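Researcher: Structure prediction, please.
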Amino acid sequence: MKYHKIAFMKQFYTEDYPQASLGAIALAVVLSVLIDAFTDPKMAVWTDTLKSKWGRRRPFVFVSAFLVPLVFFLAWTPLLPPGIGASIWFGILHLAFKLMDTLFIIPYDAWGCEMTPIYKERTTLWAWREIIGTSGLLLGAAIAPVLFVTDACETTPNSGCIQHPLISLFFGMIFVQGTLCLVWWGKEAGGESANERKELADGKKDAELATKASEDDTVPMLMSTILNPPFRMLLISSMAKACGQEVPIQIIPFVAKWCIGENCLASTELFTFLFACNIIMAVVMVYPWLLLVSKIGKHKGYLGFLIALTITSGSFISIMYDDGTCTATYSVIVLLMLGGASYGGAFLLKDLLVDSMDYDEFLSGGRRREANYIISVEFIPKFMNIPGETIPLLLMAYLKYGRPPLETPACFNFANQTLVQANAFCHTFYTGEPVGANWCSNTKTCAGYVADGISFVCHGASKECGIKQNGNVRWLLIIAFSLVPCFFNFLSAVAMLYYPKAARTEKSHEKLLDAIAKIRRGETVEDPWRPGSFVSPRAPPGPHDGALSYFWPSELRAALKSCGSDARIPQRALLIRPLRIAVFCALVLIPLGVFILIFDIEALGDDLGASVSPMGLMLAGLGILGVWFHGSRAWISRELHDVPREHVISRINQLCPFTGEPRILEGAAASPEPPTQT
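Model: Predicted structure follows.
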């Protein structure tokens, strides 16, 4: 369902009867990511900490079984008038789909992370998930559309479209059946983490603590994941890759139609062939990637995956407009097959991610926080996706992108007619448009198309007249499809070179599992991935641990150092830094973003919506996120009036397994050697 939406919905809303604004669509995309910024972390904390006799994941998956298909179907059936009305409908249903996706995918992925602790079995599990998921992608974005979608949804904007809604209804029924089967047959771990069970056994409740803040709050949970060294490098790599990851998926229908052309295959058939070849190769190559990883290890395998993506995505710069010989079309199909072969290793990210969750369980003394790691590696890179999802659409509007003409006469009208003669016929036809005929558009004449650099050509596959976008639009699409993902995949590979060496092998993971078992038995253990650092079983939470969990270890150490040998740490020592950042976001980023949003918002109502307002919304949204994150940290400091020095030291020592820094002895400002093993 998701990739059926990604592959076709934007093009459907812009080129078929909804005639939605590109700028309005970009605005909705930005707004949805900003809403995700608040809903994703809340959902992760909710599903990780839920205490239910049905488990931590099952209730959410059950509810989503009915809501996700409903929203998906409505998104394909715009009930408002074309233009602004359809743009608003797209925005509302796009936001709703994102919320339903959050409700389902976070508990679902977290459930998968609980399945098995065995190193190779886990790799096989994620490989099969990739095979099945990619097969669904192939069905939703390629097979079903080519079998059932007719010209009514592709080349005749005034005739309506019912095939996409029917396909969405079919996929929705499959989704209901699959999720209900998972709810009924699926098994999951108990609803409480090891640490929570210990607290319950000791009779310790959050209400008994001196503060209302908790380490399970959204902000501390997000901060704790970033303190995990292996996960931190995975996150940086994922963020870099995300900057270019979504661009090809978002624009491949436009690339197929306008950069390769329709002289060999019609745009729908061409897109289906391109997508199908890419996805089939991705499915076929999962098993070879699995064999390769069994020989060289997960880390080297994932690094090889990123390097392969870098090379194959860069090769798309060679895309050319087909002249009717089909050479350009077939060459792109081959390149996309190679790209699909590279993408067979995509499952390795989740595989490495679950290993980092095991390390978090060890460092935290027994806590399992799968959902928080899932949303961190998926939610934070979503902000990196915003430019890739919106900037190409906005630049297309600024570079005079032309919608397909409303009238498409036949262009091969006599025997032995050449493509050059057919192109000349189409040019003559459109340039002879009578006044008020609206052959090209309801808002622009065919002469206006010519003024924008758009050519009138004959599409050899359909034997109908159409347009060829101006050179600027075509080069924009090619660069966004090739060089942009190539550059960011390269940065992602560079980040993985800094993945901790001690965490790269199966043997090191076995040592980690042994260490976790000893922690559960109450022993103090040397960190197998950071020799010389020792980890003890988690102590009961102190009276200020909840509030202190809102601050980075460096901030706690700085506050301790600034107060010398004082017995208590004043509130201002922890307040100043988060307050400054929150004020900067509130007084600089938000006003600047709002100004850009309002300054060009009228342009969203234009034919194509060439407006920078979505970028203003993105900037304002980042400011709001900054105010929320750092404002929460500043606000919680009110609970830390003259906190005892030993409480701060205790919190710093709890975080030493994450940071690798030596512990501080009680009452000492300096840091002596680490504790000895018991």
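Model: Residues 533-659 form one domain.
Researcher: Thanks, that helps.
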